[in-house]
Amino acid sequence: MAKTGEPILKVVATNRKATHDFHVHERIEAGISLVGSEVKSLRDSKVTMADGYVEIRKGQAWLHGIQINEYGAANRWNHEVARVRKLLMHKHEIAKLGDKTSLKGYTLIPLSLYFKGSKVKVELALVTHKKQHDKRATKREADDKREMDRAIKRAR
To answer: What are the b/e assignments for 94-128, b being 16+ CB within 10 Å?
Structure first.
């Protein structure tokens, strides 16, 4: 249970493929600029974020590849499903991330989309791509951990 004064977090969507395909180096929280029908659609968890990425252009951060489906009751005032959305961050944060993403191999991707109180937030990650052998090693480690947990549970 959250303490009084702490906002309640409600995760809307996660990019489960991200931890499989990338090494996560740093995590950042950012706000996102949305229209009303997008927020209502997010409350119904109608979002796809598997192909999302962040582009830093002219001192601003833009979120690409996130699809927030149309909200049924918004009729003609509905939003564009795959539009580019502006991220709300401080200038020094954007500049720091811009410097890091300009380095070879680094990318900025969204990991999860969630409500923090009444605000919509996106968790970003500074990542590098995994090689095929890294993916196999990660899977092997997860399988070994699962086997150890099963053996401990059987021993009880």
So the answer is: beebbeebeeeebebbbbbbbbeeeebbbbbbbbe
For residue 124, what is the enclosing H or E element? strand 119-129
Q: What percent of the chain has pLDDT over 70?
A: 97
Both ends of the chain: CA-CA distance in Å?
Answer: 30
Q: Which of 154, 124, 100, 150 is nearest to 18 (CA)?
A: 124
Paired strand residues for 128: 23
Listed by start position, the domains of the chain span 9-130
Residue 46 backbone phi and psi in degrees, to 5: -100, 70
Question: Global pTM?
Answer: 0.76
Query: Domain 9-130, CATH 3.30.720.210 — does that match?
Result: no
